[in-house]
Structure formats: C-alpha cells, structure tokens
Amino acid sequence: MSNKIKIVIYALLLVMNLVTTTATAETIKITNGEWPPFLSEKYKHFGLASHIVTEAFKASGVSVEYGFFPWARAFNLAKDGDKWAATVVWSHNDEREADFYFSQPVFSLQSVFFHVKGRTIDWNQLSDLKKFNIGATIGYNYGDEFTKLEESHGLNVTRVETDLINLKKLVGGRIDLFPSELQVGYELIANELPPEQAAKIAHSRPFRETEYYMLLSKKYPGGKELIDKFNAGLAKIKASGLYDQMMSDSVEGAYKPN
Description:
Blueprint: H1 3-19, E1 26-32, H2 48-58, E2 62-68, H3 71-80, E3 86-90, H4 94-97, E4 100-102, E5 107-116, E6 133-137, H5 144-151, E7 156-160, H6 163-171, E8 178-181, H7 182-192, H8 195-198, E9 201-203, E10 208-217, H9 223-240, H10 242-251
Helix pairs in contact: 2-9
C-alpha cells in the first residue's frame, strides 16, 4: 500500500472518530514515562500506547494532557489523584487494584530474556534460570512467578534504575539475562547500541504474555465514570478500524521521531 493511500485511509478513520465525538466536555491529566516505542515524549503522538489512550478518550468527549516523569513518580502522582487522574500503561497486580480502576486492556505484549548470542540458555520453567545473573529494572512487574522466585531467592536478580543500564550491563558481561517486552527491548537495542554490538544480542522464547492497562486513581473525582468513558471510547475506535490502523502503523515505524 502506498504512503499516500495509507495517509488517506488514516485521515478518514480520524474523521470517523471525530464524527462520533461530542464536544469535548473535560480535560484530564495523565502521567506517562519513557518506554519506547509505546510511550515516549520524543515519539509522534507520544508513542502508540499514548495515541490509543488519547483517541479512546476523544471518542468519548474527553481530551488528554500528558506529563512525563520517572516511573515511580508517575505512578505515585496518579495514585494521589490530585492534579493527575491516571497513568499509562501498567500490567495488573492485586496491590494496584486497591488504588486504581483498571481500564480494558490497551494491548498485550510478550516478554523475553535478552542474552548475548552464543550463550546457551536452556530452561523449561523460570526456576531453571537460577544459575544466571538476571538484570531487572526497579518498579517493573515481570509477573507473579518471577516476583515470587525473586523474593524467595529462587532467581538471582539485581535491579537497577533503567532498562538502558541493564542493556549496557548485558553487553559488558555483567549480567547474563535481561527481561523485557520483545518490541521494547529491540527498540532500545536499535536506539542505543552500535550495529556491531546490536548484532550480538539474541532473545529467548517468551516467558510471559502481559496485558497492559490505563490506571485511573480511585481518589480522582468522577474516576469510575471516566474509566467507563475510556472503555466505551476504546470499543468505538476498535469498531471503526482506527485501533487496528494504529497498531499496523506502529509495526511500520510510523511513531518514531523524525
């Protein structure tokens, strides 16, 4: 499909979305963070996930403003429910349910372990990986099984502030495995490593498939109504074809910065 035709189709889908949208009644503020290609202040529309959330709310007459913060602060600002109503995007766990309404899933992603090529990584279950040094990122949830093994020392896990630090530790031989969502990991590799180093990185089979959600603070006034509006808008953009078009555009790199 030519770029001109794609642009026309995308414009028509946006128009269809606007037709179903009533005059914007309110604006909410949502915390965000760096997680390219899905979330980034540098990417077009602030990345695919941000764009989906923006268009879903727009379809229900709500406009969105984003603020970008380190992840721990982004979470806590939204949890307070004062100025910031919500945060994007997060996986589910029971602790978060105490403070947030969870939207319908924005999308799902597969997680893998990145490693240096030539390293044999044989495993049937996560506990088989105890002999390896695993570099995880502070504040990230890698699933219940991973968490339980980490807390019980069934895995040898060291946590640092960012994925980039872990990637550099992997290349430098200071860790053996770096867990990440497949697309996020390869985006980081492409953006941060020279080609000769990037060519040395491989990944395992998926160890987890995760749904990601918008979280809306239970302390924010009208939070339950807002989550209902978001879910209704998400259903609208899926029915119109706009959601599928955005997903397709992301695969083709449409959200990358110029």
